[in-house]
Structure formats: structure tokens, C-alpha cells
Design brief:
266 residues, alpha/beta, Rossmann fold, disordered N terminus, binds S-adenosylmethionine
Length: 266
């Protein structure tokens, strides 16, 4: 195992300080120079706010790339009070190497930005949301961050797959919710449509770009079906295959629409 691979393994939790001793506050280092396309500093502030507010014991992150957002999330989770059993961040990506520079491992920036998290970090770079939703325990996650394939209908499908893992009423943070406006050269609408059309509670991140936000799941997931069915009818920017889509209950009607659309070869 190389030093980098070793650094990317879940870090052991260091021994607790004796009662009464105070631990130094965690500090987060800067992103390394080689990083591209990571969550910018203002949006990282929104991630920290959401983690602080919802204090998840278990969180998932879909889309890691360099690992900048993983480092921010680990830092935010470590600032929360200790809980029995500790806290966990599951970070998943489909690529073991950075999509913009294969000489860097996915998640590598964590080793320099935030090298010794107390939160357990489980990084899997050979998994997508469909498989994650079939491997983790149902309702075991309190907060999710989706920053993966932004082409419609992927953000919607990722969110629907994630619902099986999330507690009722959980929040899902979405990145690049204003991407086509912030970067007109990158006209990719999936995350923006998902956020803009979300019919339930949602909040947009502060800052001029408003390129990050969060949506709250309804307690009864069946209420998402009409919204998802309507969004799935929009022009697809990057068609999934049936292998990629195995929507959990109660989204069978949406799965049927996806299957019909894929079989039509759209
Ligand atoms: C914009 S980058 C993530 C940036 C990262 N969140 C940050 O702020 O540092 C998107 C990542 O999503 C990954 N990805 C694309 N499709 C995916 C999928 N279906 N499931 C999981 N990860 C995916 C890509 O390999 C890429 O590394």
C-alpha cells in the first residue's frame, strides 16, 4: 500500500483525552494546488452550517473527486459534541482516481487538508448511489450531500436512491444548483431543476452564486412521486441504463417511467 493509499483508509480514532482535559479545536488546511472543481469556500460554509445544525451521527457524501468536500465535512463533524459510538462519514465515488487528473487518488486532498479526523471516514471509490442504497442499512443516515453527476436525470435518481438510507424528514444538500447560471459554459441542468422544482421545504445557500442548497424529504415519501414523475419527463442530458436505476419503494411508478424511456432508446 502506498503512503497515499494508506492515508485514504479510514483513520483510527485516537484515544480520548482524559476527563477535564480540553482538545485543541480542529483546524482545516487549504486545498492543495492541484485541486480542480471542488466546492468553493462559500459553499463549504453552507456545508459546515448544515452539519452543525443537524448534528448527524452518520452522513453520506455522493461525489468525492479530490476530497475537498470530504475534508470540510469531516472537519464540521469533528466540531460536534462527542456521542457514544462516534460519528461516521461515508463518501462514495465511481472513480478511484480524480476525474480531472488521474495522477491523484480520489479523496487524496483529505490527507493534507484534514489528516487526522476523529470521525470515522469510510471512502469507497467503486460505488454509485444505487449500490450504496442496497448495501447500507435502511434509515441509518441523517444527512446527505450529493455532488456527483449533475446531468439530468442523475441528481434526481441519486436523491431517490438515497431516500432508502435516510431517516424520514432528513435533509439532502445539493451542490451546483445554479450551475448553468454560474458557469454558462457548463450548461448542465440536473441539480438546478431538482432544487428549483422541489415542492417541499428547501433552503438556498447564501452568497451571490446561490450554487448550493438543501431540500427536506417529506415524512411520507409517496408525496415525492408526482414531482419525480414530472421531472423525469424532461429532456435527459445523460441517459442512465437500467443497470444504474433500481429505485426503492415507493418509487416503482417512477422506475416504470424510467424503464419505458430507456427502452424507447431516448
Ligand atoms: C464535482 S465532483 C465532486 C466534487 C467534490 N464533492 C468536492 O467538492 O470536492 C463530482 C464527482 O462525482 C463523481 N461521480 C459521477 N457520477 C457519479 C455517480 N453516479 N455516483 C457517485 N459518484 C459519481 C465523479 O467521479 C466526480 O469525482
Amino acid at each position: 500500500m502506498t503512503a497515499t493509499e494508506s492515508a485514504l483508509q479510514p483513520q483510527p480514532v485516537p484515544p480520548r483525552a482524559p476527563t477535564g482535559a480540553s482538545l485543541p479545536p480542529p483546524t482545516l488546511g487549504p486545498a492543495p494546488d492541484w485541486v480542480r472543481g471542488a466546492t468553493p469556500i462559500g459553499d463549504a460554509g453552507f456545508l459546515i452550517e448544515m452539519v452543525t445544525k443537524h448534528a448527524p451521527a452518520t452522513m453520506v457524501e455522493i461525489g468525492v473527486a479530490s476530497g475537498v468536500s470530504s475534508a470540510v465535512l469531516l472537519y464540521a463533524l469533528d466540531r460536534l459534541p462527542d456521542i457514544p459510538g462516534g460519528r461516521r462519514l461515508y463518501s462514495c465515488d465511481i472513480h478511484p482516481a480524480c476525474y480531472f487528473d488521474a495522477t491523484h487518488a480520489t479523496g487524496e486532498a483529505v490527507a493534507s487538508m484534514y489528516p487526522r479526523p476523529r470521525t470515522e471516514w469510510i471512502l469507497d471509490t467503486n460505488i454509485d448511489t444505487r449500490r450504496l442504497s442496497q448495501t447500507m442499512a435502511p434509515s441509518s443516515v441523517e444527512l446527505a450531500f450529493i455532488d456527483a453527476n449533475h446531468y439530468h436525470p442523475w441528481p434526481l435518481l441519486d436523491l431517490l436512491h438515497t431516500t432508502v438510507l435516510l431517516r424520514p424528514g432528513a435533509w439532502v444538500i445539493l451542490h451546483d444548483t445554479n450551475l448553468p447560471i454560474v458557469s454558462p459554459e457548463c450548461s448542465v441542468w440536473g441539480a438546478k431543476w431538482l432544487f428549483d422544482e422541489w415542492p417541499f421545504e428547501k433552503i438556498a445557500g447564501a452568497g451571490a452564486a446561490r450554487n448550493i442548497g438543501a431540500v427536506k424529504l417529506p415524512a411520507d415519501l409517496r408525496r415525492l412521486i408526482p414531482f419525480a414523475a414530472s421531472l423525469i419527463e424532461r429532456q435527459w442530458e445523460f441517459a442512465p441504463t437500467l443497470w444504474h436505476v433500481a429505485l426503492p419503494t415507493p418509487f416503482e411508478p417512477v422506475q416504470d417511467l424510467v424503464r419505458a424511456r430507456i427502452e424507447l432508446g431516448e
